Amino acid sequence: MGSYSRRRFVKHSLITAGALVLAPHTGAKVLGANEDIRLAIVGLRKKGKEHIKGFREIPGVRIVALCDCDTEFLDFEANEFKKRNEQVRTYTDYRRLLDNKDIDAVVLPVPDHWHALMTVWACQAGKDVYIEKPACHSIWEGRKMIEAARKYKRIVQVGSQNRSDVGLLEAVPYIQAGNLGKIRMVRGFCFGRRASIGKVTGPQPIPSTCDYNLFQGPAPLAPLMREQLHYDWHWFWDTGTGEMGNIGAHQVDHARWAMGQPNIAPRAVCCGGRFGYDDDGRTPNTQLAFFDYKPVPLVYEVRGLTRWRGDSALDTYKGLRASLRVECEGGFFAGGRGGGWAYDNDGKKIKQFKGDGGANHQANFIKAVRSRKVSDLHADIAEGVISATLCHMANISYRLGRTAGPRELRRAVEDNPVLTEHVDRLLGHLEANEIDLSSNPVKLGPVLTFDDDRQQFTGDSAEYANMFLKRVYRPPFIVPEVV
Q1: Count of CB atoms situated within 10 Å of the CB of 338
Q2: At residue 299, does pLDDT exceed 50?
Q3: Residue 75, C-beta contacts closer than 8 angstroms, at least 6 positions apart
Q4: Per residue in 432-456, pLDDT tens?
Q5: Residue 31 in this model has a pLDDT that exceeds 70
Q6: Which of 76, 333, 401, 409 to pair with 357, CA 20 to 30 A apart?
């Protein structure tokens, strides 16, 4: 995009698309208000099942195609449709599905490394897209997804269901209206036990039902070095983004929404590690990320271990485990998907915001598909990309990190009272879990500075950080240039 600011690009895209009804891409069907929206669900494990159930319940929506590179899941779901006497086409290769002009939109609960390519290809084929979080697998990919959505005039919704939660739709304007005073800082937490994925001694067999070439797609066609092919791809950098991109994509997005922050943080830093077991996972299960927004900073914590070694309960921060705390001059909001409460500074409840978990997020997508208005979307691709970029900044800082003992870690953050508090808590958590930091030390990443206009890191560590902006693609699974 040269010197053209991404911030200006996103702003212009949203204003233009929100003000006008999008003309359909050449060759795409013009949908009438009373015509069925014909969907394809791609990726048929747990989340795919949820999408089948959710979209089938929306009036005027028909699931006409299913796709999965593993026929174990494809055949099972196709049989469920057969039992209901519902016609559905099946595909193992997503590219063949896109040739079907009777499909209006695709729903993509697929591994992270496929998000951008499947979205761009769908836009080029004249189909709207519901893509799961995190929006993209790299910062560069996010820009390509926005460009494709705008160029081909497609509706692209990210699966950031928090933005459709009725409680949060009420709470966010309440906070931003100043009912609790000015926002001073925001803290997010993902404290949830993740068990070891095991450790193998050599390449593992690929399930006979799976086309591994299609599963890997843009990623290297490397031997399978984990016990489970499915789901555990989250914990490998070639295919996933770790817990920061998995759950963090939801909560970082919610935090930015509550802050009223439309931009990428200018600086970010992260520390953490993979603690508590020696397994094949490559992403950290413990992270502390700081996003240096001014004047309201954002801190996000990931913990995959329990309160202490041998305990079954999870850590909390002032009662919060997987939630957000928006701290204001006159009180705070605590909650997340499912709603929350506003409190005064003494901890007295002021107002409840009852949520529904974002149950209408899929219906919101269908509404925008009919109206052709990007402004009808609760989680347009541009919003999802900004939030995913924050997660990538934290992960890149971590991946560039060096080992640091407790004293060095505390010294590195001593000028930042917020980070000092969180680092002390992090070290206490690891001590309670009897982690030997001499043999398994914390990794402390560099502070990364991001130039939003140039879409590059600048300053110290920029040479190395910029290597993570875009992956090396495996032909023919290459995300194309769009603009």
Answers
A1: 16
A2: yes
A3: 90
A4: 999 999 999 999 999 999 999 999 9
A5: no
A6: 76
| C-alpha to C-alpha distances, 416 to 171, 303, 412, 419, 423, nearest whole angstrom | 29, 21, 9, 5, 10
Q: Look at the block and give the residue holding tokens 């010197």.
A: 3
**pLDDT value at residue 323:** 86
pLDDT at 1: 38
Q: What is the pLDDT of residues 89-104, one digit of tens each?
A: 999 999 999 999 999 9
Q: Are 270 and 292 in contact (CB under 8 A)?
A: no
Chain-wide mean pLDDT for the chain? 93
pLDDT the model gives residue 12: 43
For residue 16, the model assigns a pLDDT of 40
Residue 29: band (very low, low, confident or very high) from pLDDT cuts 50, 70, 90: low
115 contacts 133 by C-beta, under 8 angstroms: no
Asked, as a colleague might, if the bond just before 295 is cis with ω within 30 of 0, I would say yes
pLDDT at 4 over 70: no
Nearest to 435 by CA among 242, 265, 303, 249: 303
**In the predicted model, is pLDDT for residue 13 greater than 90?**
no
Q: Which residue has the tokens 């930091």?
A: 437
For the chain, percent of residues with pLDDT exceeding 90: 90
Distance separating alpha carbons of residues 180 and 305, to the nearest angstrom: 33
Model confidence pTM above 0.85 = yes
